[in-house]
């Protein structure tokens, strides 16, 4: 690289923090010089980590976009439904863009993001991070070299994990379609992207998918279970117990993800975490939430055999 790249971070949560940490690992390549997030605590933490000047700290991405361009690139790590608007705004300012997946929650919005980036001649990279995993790249290398033969069928499984599913898709930010997006887009876009990546230049002709919410429902709530894990008589035998997933980790000093998400708006200590579980969404019984995304889904892609 001929010079250090300057970056503005929009959304200082888990993904924004992780992507911007590249600047801490490789300070000669990248420097974070701005941050925007409505949450004071996470905004302050990222500001402190990168020593961002106060004039480049915003509680709203719109305020940052209204400024004259002051960085080379922008990392957009806002919630799913808040990807399109900042992507378009910063592309129009001619920032290069690293955009958290999914690009947007509708095909029309995705097309609009691409159109604006192309018309303003900016780089758009979407965070399909599994493409860069060594195993993924080795599979691609073997397939492209023809060492395995022609691809007739790819069978790919996304085992999210019981506690991860409970954290993200039952209690958490991706539990409800109207607030985020459907799980095939929110989670399995990684998997469909990998399949397309491995298939190379072959065109996908059609896609089918089906799934349903089969387990995390009020009908499956154990007899005698409470509304919250901290006040539940069956909690000791429940694998989805918030006490097991969060408190037991924190008691061992592990305040990183997923515990950090529970405490994102407050401090990182046992007392604060306990209070967040007592009052907030992550302490709820998994059978008594407002989740409506599917708990199991299958998808199929047909590619042009030519």
From TrEMBL:
Domain Gfo/Idh/MocA-like oxidoreductase C-terminal, chain residue ranges per copy: 140-202
UniProt domain Gfo/Idh/MocA-like oxidoreductase N-terminal: residue ranges: 5-127
GO MF term set: nucleotide binding
Protein name from the UniProt record: Gfo/Idh/MocA family oxidoreductase
Source organism superkingdom: Eukaryota
PANTHER family: BILIVERDIN REDUCTASE A, BINDING ROSSMANN FOLD OXIDOREDUCTASE, PUTATIVE (AFU_ORTHOLOGUE AFUA_4G00560)-RELATED
Pfam families: GFO_IDH_MocA, GFO_IDH_MocA_C
InterPro entries according to UniProt: Gfo/Idh/MocA-like_OxRdtase_C, Gfo/Idh/MocA-like_OxRdtase_N, Gfo/Idh/MocA_Oxidoreductases, NAD(P)-bd_dom_sf
């Amino acid at each position: 690289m001929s010079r250090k790249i300057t970056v503005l971070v929009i959304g200082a949560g888990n993904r924004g923090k992780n992507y911007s940490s590249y600047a801490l690992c490789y300070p000669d390549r990248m420097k974070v010089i701005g941050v925007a997030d409505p949450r004071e605590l996470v905004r302050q933490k990222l500001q402190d980590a990168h020593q961002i000047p106060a004039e480049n700290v915003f509680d709203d991405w719109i305020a940052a976009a209204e400024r004259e361009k002051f960085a080379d690139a922008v990392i957009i790590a806002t919630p799913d439904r808040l990807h399109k608007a900042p992507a378009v705004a910063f592309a129009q300012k001619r920032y290069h863009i690293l955009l958290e997946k999914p690009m947007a929650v509708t095909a029309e919005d995705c097309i609009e993001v691409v159109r604006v980036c192309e018309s303003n001649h900016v780089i758009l990279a979407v965070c399909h991070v599994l493409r860069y995993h060594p195993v993924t790249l080795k599979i691609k290398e073997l397939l492209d070299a023809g060492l395995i033969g022609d691809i007739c069928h790819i069978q790919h499984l996304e085992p999210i994990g019981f506690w991860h599913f409970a954290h993200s898709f039952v209690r958490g930010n991706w539990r409800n379609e109207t607030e985020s997006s459907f799980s095939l887009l929110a989670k399995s876009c990684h998997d469909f992207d990998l399949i397309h990546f491995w298939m190379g230049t072959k065109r996908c002709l059609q896609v089918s998918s089906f799934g349903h919410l089969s387990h995390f429902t009020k009908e499956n709530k154990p007899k005698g279970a409470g509304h919250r894990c901290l006040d539940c008589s069956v909690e000791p035998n429940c694998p989805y117990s918030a006490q097991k997933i969060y408190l037991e980790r924190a008691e061992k000093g592990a305040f990183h993800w997923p515990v950090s998400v529970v405490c994102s708006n407050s401090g990182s200590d046992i007392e604060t975490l306990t209070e967040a579980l007592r009052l907030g969404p992550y302490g709820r019984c998994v059978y008594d939430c407002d989740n409506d995304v599917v708990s199991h889904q299958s998808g199929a892609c047909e590619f042009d055999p030519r």
